[in-house]
Amino acid sequence: MNEQFQRTESILGAESTARLKKCRIAVFGVGGVGGYVVEALARSGIGVIDITDSDKVDITNINRQIIATHDTVGCYKVDVFEERIHSICPETTVNKYKGLYLPSSSKSVESLQSDGADETKMRIYTEKDYDFTAYDYIVDAIDNVTAKISLVCEADRAGTPVISAMGCGNRIDPAKLKQTDIFKTHDDPLAKIMRKKLRAAGIRRLKVVCSEEAAMKPSGESRSPGSSPFVPASAGLMIAGIVVRDLLEV
After folding, report:
1. Which residues share a beta bridge with 28?
2. Distance CA 174, CA 228 (A)
3. How far is 154 from 68, CA to CA, in rounded Å?
4. What's the pLDDT tens digit per position in 110-119?
5. Helices (H), the chain
6. How far apart are CA 61 and CA 69, in angstroms?
């Protein structure tokens, strides 16, 4: 028994724990929700984790993102996570995509595209940069609707399971989170927009984690959504748990 994972193996069994080591998961977006997905997947012993994110840790992330500390402010999130994952499980392979994911059909791609030579420019990754058939599961934890729809469609074409995070901002009650199909969601503006676009794309089902809590109105003059330490973290842990259970069919 691998001592590091003996507590996991004691409930899942040696065979299932070994299966997780052979799995490859892609997580798009490693912020409040996606960060906790990556954390739990690493602690579950997933063998290969691909992470895509363009952001650096900001001081405003400290209230809810697991890698955000005063020591990591200004560092690229994928770099911090690579180090963190290896500190948890040195054997895990980490593939980093330090940039923004957008479908190649997006009008924004041409204006943002960079060959990576100029560090001041943002690197753009499209569906052409990934082999979606290589993944055992895809986690969508990004905010951009166009990118989210693209990921779902690419996963559908590849026959790869995918799960999407819905809105977690302006909410404080993690007990209101649930797993459901996006076409059964309500009172979630993000899900409403996605439902329409998914229907147009011919997608008839999508597993999501969403909140049934009515979104609060943030106080002050900020246009950015408010956030809590509880809901994004809980959503991320829920998603990781769903991924592992689906992989093991338990």
Report:
1. 52, 140
2. 10
3. 30
4. 666 654 445 5
5. 6-12, 14-21, 32-44, 77-88, 107-112, 145-158, 189-200, 231-248
6. 8
Q: What are 63-109's pLDDT values in tens digits? A: 999 999 999 999 999 999 999 999 999 999 999 999 999 999 887 77
Which of the 8 DSSP states describes residue 171? -
Cα–Cα dist 145/197, whole Å:
9
Task: Provide CATH code, domain 3-248.
Answer: 3.40.50.720
CA 182 vs CA 104, 134, 221: distances in Å: 25, 25, 31
Q: What is the pTM of this model?
A: 0.94
Q: Which pLDDT score, from 0 to 100, does residue 120 have?
A: 54
Specify the residue for token string 């999407």: 164
Annotated domain spans of the chain: 3-248
